[in-house]
Design a protein that fits this description.
The protein is of the alpha+beta class and about 150 residues long. The protein has five helices and four strands. Helix 2 crosses helix 5.
Length: about 150
């Protein structure tokens, strides 16, 4: 009797360990059009990039409800640089990657016309970055309103 219960318990544990898992459905609400791209040009070996991590983490957290697409163009090595070029090309901002070919930069770009609005660095505090980004969002919204009239 003891052996049968032990085997049943082992079979039950095995089932839960090996049972297939299924993807879940996630509701995605809101508009999918960003007002701004905030693009970090990053490399793992870059000291300025490392210094930017906590600053940008604070900016992202504070601005999580804003229509801002935060992304990183990683140029750590040849493979990642190739992927960064492809992403920049897909977004239409590859010229900014070529022109601002330094690591440790944060580029604020208008997605509508792909204009570079601001270049930020580790010298900017999180509060300064938030203020500048919010100012650009407000200006972008004003431009959109003017175009709608």
């Amino acid at each position: 009797m003891q052996t049968r219960h032990t085997l049943s318990l082992i079979a039950l544990i095995f089932f839960f360990i090996t049972a297939p898992t299924f993807a879940a459905t996630v509701e995605v609400e809101g508009e999918g059009t960003p007002a701004l791209y905030v693009v970090k040009v990053h490399a793992d070996w870059c000291g300025s990039c490392k210094a930017l991590v906590p600053i940008l983490d604070e900016v992202r957290e504070t601005m999580s409800a804003e229509p801002v697409l935060f992304l990183t163009l990683d140029v750590t090595d040849e493979d990642r640089t190739g992927q960064a070029r492809l992403l920049a090309a897909a977004l239409g901002i590859e010229q900014h990657l070529k022109t601002n070919n330094k690591t440790g930069l944060v580029l604020v770009i208008n997605p509508s016309d792909k204009a570079l609005l601001e270049t930020l660095t580790r010298e900017n505090t999180a509060d300064e970055m938030i203020g500048k980004i919010e100012g650009h969002i407000a200006a972008t919204e004003e431009e959109d309103e003017d175009m709608d009239m």
